[in-house]
Design goal:
alpha+beta; 7 strands
Length: 159
């Protein structure tokens, strides 16, 4: 692991440190923050981060419940991985894949055996990485929200 880099779950009180990773204006950030803080408080999500000496440089949000597509999650068995972001300066170094490894190991230790992830059909770089990790079974099609209005395919990885 690169010196000064660590992977961990983010505490609710640290959520604002992710703002620099969020694409959007201040009003959208405020809505996003309010929604995510509510989900964190209700134990519907966990946020995992890559932390460097400069602060948080990457994130993945794990959803335990889904309010949109029921195929994304199955309580106690399947989680949905979302908000997979990495600061541009750190891309191409394998850190995003190490974060994904970390999150999958933590979730497997909690007893989860199925994982879903959404990816835009034209995002060949992300699809290449996800396919390497076994996210190869397309199971549904989703439509983003005001925070990320893209259309995407849901891929399943069952272990």
């Amino acid at each position: 692991m690169e010196q000064g880099i660590r992977f961990r779950m983010l505490g609710e009180d640290e959520f604002d440190s992710l703002k620099k990773l969020f694409p959007g204006d201040e009003e959208i950030w405020k809505k996003y923050r309010a929604e995510r803080m509510n989900l964190l408080a209700n134990k519907e999500i966990d946020v995992f981060v890559i932390e460097a000496e400069t602060g948080m440089i990457g994130e993945i949000t794990v959803y335990y419940t889904s309010h949109e597509l029921q195929t994304e999650t199955i309580p106690g068995r399947r989680v949905y991985l979302s908000a997979y972001r990495l600061e541009e300066a750190y891309r191409g170094k394998g850190l995003g894949q190490k974060l994904l490894d970390y999150v999958l190991k933590v979730m497997e230790a909690k007893g989860y055996t199925e994982f879903t992830i959404g990816v835009e059909d034209d995002n060949e770089i992300a699809k290449h990485i996800y396919f390497k990790y076994g996210f190869v079974d397309p199971i549904d099609h989703g439509y983003g929200d005001e925070f990320d209005p893209s259309e995407y395919t849901i891929y399943l990885n069952a272990r």
